[in-house]
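Dear support,

I submitted the protein below through the web form. The confirmation email said the job was done, but the results page showed an empty box. After a refresh the structure appeared. I'm attaching both so you can tell me whether what I see now is the final result or a partial one.
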Amino acid sequence: MKPANGLKAHPVFIDVGVESLHASHGGQTLEVPLLRSTNGSLTDECQQQLAATLQKFVRRKFWQPAIRGVCAIPARGVSLRAFSIPSAKPEETERLLALQIESEFPLSPEELAWGWCRSAGKTEVGKTNSILVMAVKKDVVEQYATIFTQCGIAPEFTLGALARSGLLKTAVASSGFLDLGTTHSEFIKFEDGVPSLVRILPWGLQHVSQNATAEQRKAALTCLSAAMDELCSAGKLYVSGLISNEAGLIAQLQKQFGKSYQCEALLSDASVSATLTGLRQNFETGKELPLTLRTKTAASRKKLQPIAFKKQVLVAAGLVVGLFALPYLEALLLTPHLRNQLATIEAEKSKLTTIDRELSFLQNLKQSQPPHLEALYLLSKSAPSGTRVDSLSMNRRGEIVLRAALQNGQQVSDFRSKLMDSGFFSVVTVEEQVPTPDRQKVNIRMAAQWKPAAERTTLAIGPSADEMAKEKTDKSKTDRPPVRSAKGQEKKP
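What the results page shows now:
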């Protein structure tokens, strides 16, 4: 055995049987015996030996992309079901099939490796589609996929019996395919050109070979005849296997079945694997696999298609060139933008002198402006309720003269005390205090002088933010009673 060249574009064809594994790649073939545990899975020792043998056979370098692997699995645990679903788009079809699998199979779609295809000749146009679904427990396929992926193979899985049936140039409406093994055999049945069932038979070459006794041959053929009568209706039976041309075997089968079946060898060369031949023939003729199992490995292969080594080198070289060229490209691209910004700055620079002059004027105006509003605010806050202001005069020197009417002398004293406590006024004097003729109010004349600007800088005069918000939301002021003038006429507030 010579190892295949990993650089070739041809995929690796793998036939996973019950007793052995056959592989073909680049004109070279490989056969590895398989050891299985009681549950049908490969033993740990067998997995390690198989992985090491396949790595030597494929000879893939670490920098090379993964090699496509077209793999056929045995019929053990495989189920074929036909479903009729409404016509829909492919993505909707898969969703409907997942619901059908959920209800028909003992395991959920997430626990199965499954695939589907349309059944030719069983489609009701415009109404329903007949879909053939193949499913197997996911653990079975993932075990093979893990081993093949370690060897640099990106596997695609189909059923070996379907690959063998593709060797016929013309399809037969009703037929069966029997692949002989040493201790077990595989049988698949076709009805109207569509596979309907697949089975593993506990019957093999050792029961009918020349080394077997006549009683063993007779018992085995009788057992096979009974199984065939149960599984297959009248039609053709194609026999394959590496030993399918055992001397007189086809004649013995034909004699046993009589006119019920027409037995025929699928391949004339018994040393060639019918499964590998079927896989290779599909690839060379450009045909797709009839049914491909959907697995995690297959999905990741579609999403992450490996890049060839030359493409990786080109991409890396492009990144290095771009890294060194980026500063120069940035300078070329940003130069016009920077020129426009500099021109804008130069044009705006002439306005700075005018802005500085206007700012100085406003600052001087603010400093020299008399605090009339502050004085009015303090007078209004300090005046008691019911105060009537007759006249008020203020000048730029800070002299204030107020004429007002208060209710009594106590209010006059409180009014003056509040003005002094504000810290805004240096002097507050009540120059005149005369009661009205009806003795209900007191007319006053008050003089005040506010402090110099330097002493007023530390004072915070004016309503706070909370007071202003309260004034805006206070609706009670809209319901104030009318104010009466001195003549008794009502005025709106």
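Response: this is the final, complete result; the empty box was a page-load delay. The first helix runs from residue 44 to 58.
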